[in-house]
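Key result, reporting period 2: structure in, sequence out.
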């Protein structure tokens, strides 16, 4: 009995005050700050900050260079606000920590989960690292999904705030759009009352549907946000990161691949090795093995059954899973950060299930969440240990060297442009690319870009040096040919090998030879 009293606070699933929230979220904040201090952002992170910083305004982030990225504008808008306070790359770290803390406070204070499960969720792989330490737009999915779930009540629906949460969620990413459709579908099924009643003096039954004006207005606002997202998410030029749909890839042969993504999304597993941590993703779940197929199918069925007795949640959860699998198979397979939205959708569904049926025992959903979080302890520990012990990307230290050496005002030529753009983002300086004739701080993924060539990069550097009559800072992560006669190249710096292997850079100074002096 004494032991039960000791553990009773850990199983409490309703918070009446802010004490436990502060007790848990303050260490979580300290952990996030520690991780962001040690995390070197790579190109996929700094690119968004550069775009937000360079934009002429919020409208430009709808119609300008962002249109090539294949992402809706909310993350850019959010980062744009942070550029009002600083143009340093520290701003994107602050923005990510703020969004992650917002999601954490909402989860701990308002989620009807046992306290021990809240601890596990905060330090799961996705909330503990992938979506909160890596500075990407997917942290907004957690923030607005938690906001919706915290606001939702079956008898006191806050129409305006709920519409705002769903609308913002849809504008964060494609997966945010998918989750917003999931939440909207749940709202519609919950709020639209369908009654079958016998007609007077008649055998057939009548179908009555009642929708309040406030709900209709909220529904219109949410649909408008989703339509805006769809109109702004499609890039004018398909690129490797936002390709066209290949519907022929949807067939029975794709079933093992789909189950692999579900398995890896719910149960990520990573190697405790810097060289394999990022490159191999999930070495425990081998693609050629049959086990991910069985595990993925079992997880799909178990998570669906765990949402009983809410047939509404079961229905919309099923279709959002189908939608994400369809998108991944037909357009963009994705990576762990994308597959993790299967887990996020299940967390949100379990939260709503407990809110809708507060007196029921939710043994299966609790067991599944605890089991998933327990498995995610392994990749969480691996990710945090490797990111604090080793360099993640060499971009930050390469940019720091260029500034220490006073070279940042020289013309910068770099390639491949996609990799070197991370250095330019830290320096806040434009660079000349070999793939295009553009001089920019970032990369536009239009179809006019050529394949990278080390020889073209050297030719571009020589041309810039001749045109400017100035030495040139030459940056690359690859072998480069010798410069032509009349030019000399000196290696100044090489960054340490990092987790992102192709962001290990060498910095050269290229300049014309001094003319020989007459005796």
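The corresponding designed sequence is given below.
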């Amino acid at each position: 009995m004494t032991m039960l009293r000791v553990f009773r606070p850990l199983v409490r699933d309703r918070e009446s005050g802010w004490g436990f929230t502060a007790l848990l979220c303050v260490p979580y904040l300290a952990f996030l700050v520690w991780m962001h201090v040690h995390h070197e952002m790579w190109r996929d992170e700094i690119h968004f900050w550069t775009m937000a910083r360079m934009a002429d305004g919020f409208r430009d982030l709808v119609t300008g260079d962002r249109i090539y990225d294949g992402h809706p504008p909310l993350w850019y808008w959010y980062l744009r606000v942070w550029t009002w306070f600083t143009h340093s790359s520290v701003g994107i770290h602050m923005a990510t920590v703020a969004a992650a803390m917002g999601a954490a406070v909402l989860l701990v204070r308002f989620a009807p989960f046992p306290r021990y499960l809240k601890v596990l969720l905060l330090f799961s792989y996705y909330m503990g690292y992938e979506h909160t330490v890596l500075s990407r737009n997917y942290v907004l999915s957690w923030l607005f999904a938690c906001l919706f779930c915290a606001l939702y009540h079956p008898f006191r629906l806050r129409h305006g705030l709920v519409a705002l949460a769903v609308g913002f969620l849809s504008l964060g990413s494609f997966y945010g759009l998918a989750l917003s459709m999931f939440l909207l579908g749940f709202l519609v099924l919950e709020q639209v009352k369908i009654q079958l009643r016998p007609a007077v003096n008649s055998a057939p039954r009548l179908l009555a549907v009642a929708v309040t004006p406030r709900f209709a207005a909220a529904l219109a606002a949410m649909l408008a946000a989703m339509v805006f997202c769809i109109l702004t998410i499609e890039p004018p030029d398909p690129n490797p990161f936002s390709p066209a749909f290949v519907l022929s890839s949807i067939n029975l042969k794709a079933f093992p691949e789909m189950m692999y993504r579900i398995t890896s999304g719910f149960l990520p597993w990573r190697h405790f090795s810097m060289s394999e941590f990022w490159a191999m993703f999930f070495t425990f779940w081998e693609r050629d093995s049959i086990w991910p197929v069985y595990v993925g199918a079992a997880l799909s069925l178990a998570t669906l059954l765990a949402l009983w007795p809410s047939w509404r949640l079961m229905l919309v959860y099923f279709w959002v899973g189908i939608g994400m699998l369809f998108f991944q198979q037909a357009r963009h397979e994705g990576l762990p950060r994308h597959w993790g939205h299967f887990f996020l959708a299940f967390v949100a569904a379990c939260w709503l299930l407990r809110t809708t049926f507060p007196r029921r025992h939710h043994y299966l959903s609790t067991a599944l969440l605890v089991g998933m979080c327990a498995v995610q302890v392994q990749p969480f520990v691996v990710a945090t240990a490797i990111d604090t012990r080793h360099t993640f990307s060499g971009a930050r230290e390469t940019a720091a060297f260029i500034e220490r050496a006073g070279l940042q005002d020289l013309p910068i030529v770099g390639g491949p442009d996609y990799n070197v753009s991370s250095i330019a983002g830290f320096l806040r300086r434009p660079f000349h690319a070999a793939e295009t004739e553009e001089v920019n701080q970032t990369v536009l993924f239009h179809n006019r870009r050529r394949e990278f060539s080390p020889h073209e990069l050297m030719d571009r550097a020589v041309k810039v040096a001749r045109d400017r009559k100035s030495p040139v800072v030459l940056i690359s992560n690859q072998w480069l040919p010798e410069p032509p006669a009349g030019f000399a190249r000196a290696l100044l710096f090489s960054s340490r090998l990092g987790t992102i292997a192709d962001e290990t850079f060498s910095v050269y100074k290229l300049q014309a030879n001094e003319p020989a002096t007459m005796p």
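The longest strand covers residues 487-494. The mean pLDDT is 91. This case is discussed further under Risks and Mitigation.
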